[in-house]
Design goal:
Blueprint lengths: L2 H4 L9 E8 L4 H7 L3 E4 L4 E8 L2 H13 L4 E6 L2
Antiparallel strand pairs: 1-3, 1-4, 2-3
Length: about 80
């Protein structure tokens, strides 16, 4: 199976919706200044963020900001 068939929802050059799960609770300013539309803090102190990025560089910038703030990435899912 080719890359395009195995990963049909990943978009490199246009907007795409993502769900990102991190350990801890990101600051409101980090979330607000970035992109997250939905924020769910779970009892185990993981946070699920969801929203749309303009493109992959935009998403990677947000991931770097999360990691730079000391959060551990649990998962990143592209919804298309």
């Amino acid at each position: 199976m080719g890359v395009n068939q195995a990963w049909p929802r990943i978009r490199r050059d246009g907007p795409a919706k993502y769900v990102i799960c991190v350990r801890g609770i990101p600051s409101a300013s980090l979330v607000r200044e970035s992109w997250a539309v939905g924020v769910e803090v779970r009892p185990d102190r993981t946070t699920v963020l969801n929203g749309t990025f303009a493109d992959q560089p935009d998403m990677l910038g947000f991931l770097r900001a999360l990691i730079g703030a000391g959060h551990v990435l649990v998962s990143v899912e592209c919804l298309g």
